Each structure stands twice: as structure tokens, then as C-alpha cells.
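Sample pair:
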Amino acid sequence: MSVESVRAFFAANAPDIKVIESDKSSATVALAAEAFGVTPAEIAKTLSLRVGEINMLVVTCGTARLNNKKARAVFGGKPRMLNADEALEATGHPVGGICPFGLKNPLKIYCDVSMKNFAEVVPAAGSVNSAVRISPARLAELTRAEWVDVCEIQSH
């Protein structure tokens, strides 16, 4: 159901954007970068978080990590990652395929400014081997996301 809900989202909101699928898993940033031929930083990973009783998604550059101090200041409380079951229940997407498109439930969506360094990013599309190519600005516009600065880039 997950990839189908993402396809339906794009059919309704952005018919020019097509879901791409790989025969390789893209469940992690490194695997996704390899599967879709981009750098790990260009993968837009979606973090599913809860602050208090509120579930939310933060879409960030693939090499970024949530900065708890920044996130607490922006979200007004300590964020915690949802576990796999909670994330699936909240989004309708399995871990490795979580994205801000075609969600099971309406969630507040945030885009981290770390993605603004790229003309195009590659977020998952509802399964462990699907994705889309999209500009960060369009991703934010289509998902009605708010831009925030809550992550820091990890150097490897």
C-alpha cells in the first residue's frame, strides 16, 4: 500500500514526478546512494519523531544528524525517534521507505536547511527500494513543510 499511496500523492499533486524503483535495497542512506547513483548527502532521509504527544517528520540531508539542542529549541521539547512499529503506524510506510508523501495520517513536516545545498535530493517513496528525484524547495512546497535548522552535517 505504501508505494501506491506515494504514487497516488504524486499523480494528484505533481504528475511530472515519477517514483523510481531499484532492484537493490535503498533502506539505508549508503544503500540508497548506491542504488540511485547519488552521493549519500543527496539522499533526503526522513526522521520520524515524537515531541510530547505530537508525531512529526523531519526531512534532512543524508549525512546530517539531529542536533538535540537545536531540535528541543525549535520543537519546544525533547524529540525521540519513533520505533519501527510506531513509524509504520504514523506514516503507513515501513522503515527504509519512510517519506513525507502519501502519508496514512496527516503529520507536521519539517525540512532541515541542510538540504538547501542541493539542486535535487532523493527521498524514499514508501518502500525499501523506491525513491523520487525532487528539488528541496518543491519537496517542502508539496508537503507544506516548514524549513528549520535542527540538524548538523556529520563529517566522515
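The CA atoms of residues 15 and 150 lie 31 Å apart.
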